[in-house]
Fold this protein.
Amino acid sequence: MNLQPPSQKEAHFVGSSQCNQCHKEEHKHWTNSLHSKMIQDISKNPDVVIADFTKLPKDADFTLAQAVYTIG
Ligand code: HEC
């Protein structure tokens, strides 16, 4: 379900680095805090996966190759 208001259909995520242009101090604090690491893209840094995917339960219905983000 797409909950984006019609007036914002063309809007898209520009990335946090854009905010740094005007909010240098806030961006520095955020980057050095755990908040910036809450959701991480595995394709940009595979090292963020700390779980051992070689030891998944037999009935697991997912693989590491399907994982996109880490949370936490
Ligand atoms: C081109 C400059 C510019 C960029 C880029 C920019 N901002 Fe801002 N932002 C401002 C200005 C100017 C204000 C108003 C500051 C004020 O009222 O003191 C503001 C205000 C804000 C506020 C409200 C702050 C408050 O105290 O109410 C938030 C939250 C915010 N920006 C977040 C962001 C985020 C997140 C991004 C990146 C996605 C971003 N901004 C990118 C210029 C920018």
